[in-house]
Write a structure and sequence with these properties.
537 residues; 20% strand; globular; binds flavin-adenine dinucleotide; 26 strands; 15 helices; 7-stranded antiparallel sheet
């Protein structure tokens, strides 16, 4: 969609980034027809079939048309590997390339935010915003939304391997969880997804696309914000670039940063907001010191266990040759079949130890298996995969500008596995994956373990496997942390501490990791941010 570019040049609010959070803010603020809004997005409109097809996930994961395709800096904990670190680019941002899973987390995740001093962010406070954003056909009215723009669907095509996996898990005493988004997570379930009629339903589809029909909103795509312009301690405007031409925008009221957990701290740093000493060392003149901009980066780090199976019934066979052609035709004609599937089908929230109060591990099961070291390539024999990550990792990393230019990729150091508690939880997680794949039900269809393989036995060997083979689950948060302590970047009203006329409303503000995938929490943050902004009007 290319409507209304450059026709309205007097704006009250400028939103940086048209991703998950930016799409919500654009929609909610433009509900008031007296407010004029401009959204600036570095990427394009993301109308490619790979974005629309749920299984296109595998194609967009490393494609610079839709993805910044960053890499992490290596660290000893991951054997000095640089890990591919995708971030969405273009309308919908990361929600246009994500794995579609809709997971809110546990009530205590948000109660902890409030306990850290972030008043207004307890579970009771944020539940109305989760409900406001979603449309979920079934589910308890007390916890699920029925009138929001974001369509959340259940899986209808249940693969026989998934059914067996659930049946087998009951041998381990694992209960089926009817709605893991209702406040109780523990158990096994089919994932709920942001997929509508077999097609990706990104934040663009839910929020931005309908908002762009309004007269009071303007979008500038393929436009990069190079710098925020400050006057004294006030953010007054933005320096932008499109097609080799630079221009400035000066909103009447506020700038709202929605550039994500990498883009937002990076933009602040190149604009002179961060650790003054570090900024000077890379040739940036500091405008205002907030040391923690870019610090406290958190992410989920996952590892997979895979088994070869006896019968050719996995998705590996459907994704090859003539079968794949037939599946693509099926999707174009009926929006069903392989191409309409999210990458993960089944999930489970379980405890790494019975001594823990609530689940600390999240599992994903897929009736498919991937070729080692080849992104998105399924194996040429039948297989299945069970992956795991620790829900609330304690390790903290950082995002740092590498030069004084926003166009140079930043240094991303998540410090995966730095804390012992994170290491131990994942070792237990791998053992649980193995148990889930070797129940007597699953043993009947399993030939052997292909990853990590039978030779990996002791805790030390399992940990080495985790260090060498784990990867991001794409849930970067925390790099512009909300809080009331002197290191926090934004206050509970999401205003940047010490600077006026600027807020952050994206995944970067989360103080700690929610126990789940981060899109739902990001949408909730943007819903609440919209209300905070409207209240200040
Ligand atoms: C591959 C992948 C899979 C994922 N899977 C899931 C999943 O299954 N379920 C789930 O809940 N979560 C998932 N996530 C995470 C979730 O999608 C993100 O947490 C969420 O989308 C973050 O939203 P955001 O608004 O903070 O940032 P984004 O959605 O990333 O939006 C930021 C936007 O800002 C733009 N931008 C950045 N810098 C600039 C600049 N200087 N100028 C102009 N524009 C700029 C970017 O191009 C982008 O469009 C996944 C993420 C990825 C990348």
């Amino acid at each position: 969609m290319n409507i209304k570019e450059n026709i309205m040049e007097n704006f009250d609010y400028v939103v940086v980034g048209a991703g998950s959070s930016g799409s919500v803010i654009a929609n909610r603020l433009s509900e008031n027809n007296k407010i004029k809004i401009c959204v600036i997005e570095a990427g394009g409109s993301n109308q490619h079939p790979y974005v629309k097809m749920p299984a296109g996930f595998i194609k967009t994961i490393n494609d610079k048309r839709f993805n910044w395709c960053f890499k992490t800096e290596g660290s000893d904990y991951v054997n000095n590997r640089e890990i591919l670190f995708p971030r969405g680019k273009g309308y919908g941002g990361s929600s246009a390339i994500n794995g579609h899973l809709y997971v809110r987390g546990q009530p205590d995740d948000y109660n902890q935010w409030a306990q850290l001093g972030n008043l207004g962010w307890s579970y009771d406070d944020v539940l109305p915003y989760f409900k406001k954003s979603e449309y979920k056909e079934n589910g308890d009215d007390a916890t699920r939304g029925k009138q929001g723009p974001l369509y959340v669907s259940d899986i209808v095509e249940k693969h026989p391997l998934c059914e067996e996996f659930i049946r087998g898990s009951s041998e381990l005493g694992i209960q089926v969880q009817n709605d893991y988004n209702s406040g109780q997570q523990e158990g096994i379930f089919y994932y709920q997804r942001t997929i509508k009629n077999g097609t990706r339903f990104s934040a663009y589809d839910a929020f931005l696309k309908p908002a762009l029909k309004r007269e009071n909103i303007n979008i500038k795509k393929n436009t990069t914000v190079l710098k925020i312009i400050f006057k004294n301690k006030k953010a007054v405007g933005l320096l932008c670039k499109k097609n080799n031409k630079t221009f400035e925008i000066f909103p009447n009221k506020e700038i709202i940063l929605c550039a994500g957990a990498i883009g937002t701290p990076h933009l602040l740093q190149v604009s002179g907001i961060g650790d003054a000493k570090y900024l000077k060392s890379i040739g940036i003149e500091p405008s205002f010191e907030i040391k923690n901009v870019g610090e406290d980066l958190q992410d989920h780090y996952a590892v997979r266990v895979a088994n070869r199976i006896t019968e050719p019934i996995s998705l590996n066979e459907k994704a090859r040759g003539l079968n794949l052609v037939l599946e693509i035709i099926k999707w174009f004609t009926s929006k069903k079949g392989l191409i309409s599937y999210s990458p993960a089908h089944i999930g489970a929230f379980l405890k790494s130890s019975p001594k823990i109060d609530s689940p600390d591990l999240q599992f994903v099961f897929t009736p498919a298996s991937y070729t080692e070291g080849m992104i998105g390539k399924l194996q040429n024999f039948p297989g299945m995969t069970c992956g795991v990550w620790q829900s609330r990792p304690q390790s903290r990393g950082y995002v740092r500008a590498s030069t004084n230019k926003i166009t140079d990729p930043p240094i991303i150091q998540p410090n995966y596995l730095k804390e012992k508690i994170d290491q131990d939880a994942l070792v237990e997680g791998v053992k649980i994956c193995r148990s889930l794949l070797s129940t007597s039900t699953m043993k009947k269809i399993s030939v052997c373990e292909t990853l990590p393989g039978d030779s990996i036995k002791s805790d030390e060997e399992i940990f080495n496997f985790i260090r060498n083979k784990g990867a991001t689950v794409y849930h970067a948060i925390g790099s512009c942390r909300m809080g009331v302590d002197n290191k926090a970047v934004v206050s509970p009203s999401l205003k940047i501490n010490g600077i006026s006329n600027i807020r952050i409303a994206d995944a970067s503000i989360m103080p700690t990791m929610p126990s789940g995938n981060t899109n739902a929490a990001t949408l909730m943050i943007a819903e609440k941010a919209s209300d905070l902004i409207k209240k200040d009007l």
